[in-house]
Structures are given as structure tokens and as C-alpha cells.
Amino acid sequence: MYTEKVMDHFQHPRNMGEIENASGVGTVGNAKCGDIMRIYLDIDENQIIRDVKFKTFGCGAAVATSSMATELVKGKNIKEAMEVTNKAVMEALDGLPPVKVHCSLLAEEAIHAALWDYAQKNGIKIEGLEKPKSDIHEGEEEEEEEY
Ligand code: FES
């Protein structure tokens, strides 16, 4: 049911872990299954993503999509990172089974949440970036979500 690329990224995830003193951190929950994803971005003074790491309490498809998404944003500038949508990630993985499409949203949303955090900390505006709906901040109670 999974493509070779999905299996590869699931079995050998790239960029798993965390970044201390990251420029931006985003944590999101998947409304459909309750799984959680956190992305850490290290962004330099030229707004280039120098490093990116992720952690997830999610399924195999979430691991694979996050792994691929981190590969796609690494080395890009923040504007280019905005173009890494869940669709782009799925294409890069040669597709996902329809029931697993929602899993790929976690990576996109977590990247956006981390970019939002970075933008807030630096007082900048990133075109097309909206305040994340489901950002969960460390130490805060997880909000009740309406499904
Ligand atoms: Fe929850 Fe895939 S089932 S992220």
C-alpha cells in the first residue's frame, strides 16, 4: 500500500530530533487522529533554513511525510519553504494511500507553525503565512479541539 519512497523515509527518517535554541518551533495536532508533530527550524540572518528537525507521535505516514518535508525545506529560504505544501510532499513520495492523506497535513502545518514562531520572534511578516490554528505551546494545556 505504500510506495518505496514512503517505506524508505519511514524506515530511515531524515532529520529526526530537536534543535536547541531553534529560531522557530511549531507543534501541531492532527484534527483527524490526534497525532502530534513538532518541527524545529534553524534560520540564518539571510532567512535561509540552515537546519530542520522533527519529532512526532504519529503514524508511519506522518513520519515519512515529515522526513520528506524536512528534506524539502532544508537549505531553502523562508519564502520557498512556504511552497512546500502537503501536496508537494506527497508528490515527492510518489503518493500516499487516500486514507493517509490527512497525515501529510501535519508536516505542512508544523512547518508553518514554526515559521510563524520565527516571524513573531523577529517581528517580520511572511507572505501568505497565517496564524496556525492548532499550535500547541510547550507548557500550555492542549486546547480542546472541535471536530
Ligand atoms: Fe495520525 Fe497518520 S494516523 S498522522
From TrEMBL:
Coiled coil: none annotated. Residues 1-122 form the NIF system FeS cluster assembly NifU N-terminal domain. It comes from the Bacteria. InterPro entries: NIF_FeS_clus_asmbl_NifU-like, NIF_FeS_clus_asmbl_NifU_N. This is Fe-S cluster assembly scaffold protein NifU. It comes from Faecalicatena fissicatena. The lineage of its organism: Bacteria, Bacillati, Bacillota, Clostridia, Lachnospirales.
